[in-house]
Design goal:
about 200 residues, mainly alpha, MetI-like fold, cell membrane, AA_ABC_transptr_permease_3TM, amino-acid transport
């Protein structure tokens, strides 16, 4: 779960920055963000995990497997979160921006106090889906020796010669975690809906 939470935090922060860059009127800001999003969405996460864990040491950068997993999943999820955030930000009426400019509000204050609360309400359902995907993608981190649930199940299945039971147990562990995330989504939606009204 630590890998999922760390990855989501990286994804949320970088995703918002990428969304703002992608929405910029300046091409020098917009195009690198667009390229990053395209690259991360167009490459398999497992390849990126291998690059971080096995490829970076050849460049003199050694990452612990858990750190490579958190960074890899976080950087990958940021691309998807960026598009969710960009869509949510663009769904807020342009009049909100214009009104804040008329009141001479600084850009970052407008974003924090007016735009983000409205955009967050719209972004919560798809962000929840991304978080569920991250939770499930942690099983891929076993390929870079991260001792997580799926890898432990593989070890026990090999020792006990009962793979089917172990993999069903893994599924029955991931499922309630995703149910809890869905319940959290409902609470956040209610909270932000009340905030907007």
């Amino acid at each position: 779960m630590l890998i999922s939470i760390g990855s989501m935090l990286i994804g949320l922060i970088l995703g918002l920055l990428l969304a703002l860059a992608r929405s910029s009127k300046y091409g020098l800001v917009r195009w690198p963000a667009r390229l990053y999003i395209s690259f991360m969405r167009g490459t398999p996460i497992i390849v990126f995990l291998y690059i971080l864990y096995l490829g970076l040491p050849s460049a003199g950068i050694q990452l612990v497997a858990v750190h490579a997993a958190i960074i890899g999943l976080g950087l990958n999820s940021a691309a998807y979160i960026a598009e969710i955030d960009r869509s949510a930000l663009s769904s807020v009426e342009k009049g909100q921006w214009e009104s804040s400019r008329a009141l001479n509000m600084p850009y970052w204050l407008t974003l924090r106090k007016i735009i983000l609360p409205q955009a967050t309400r719209i972004a919560i359902p798809p962000l929840t889906n991304v978080f569920m995907d991250i939770v499930k993608a942690t099983s891929l981190t076993a390929v870079i020796t991260v001792p997580e649930l799926f890898q432990k199940a593989q070890i026990v299945a090999g020792r006990e010669f009962d793979a089917m039971t172990m993999y069903i147990l893994v599924a029955l562990i991931y499922w309630p975690v995703c149910i809890l995330i869905g319940m959290l989504q409902e609470r956040l939606e209610k909270r932000y809906s009340a905030f907007i009204k």
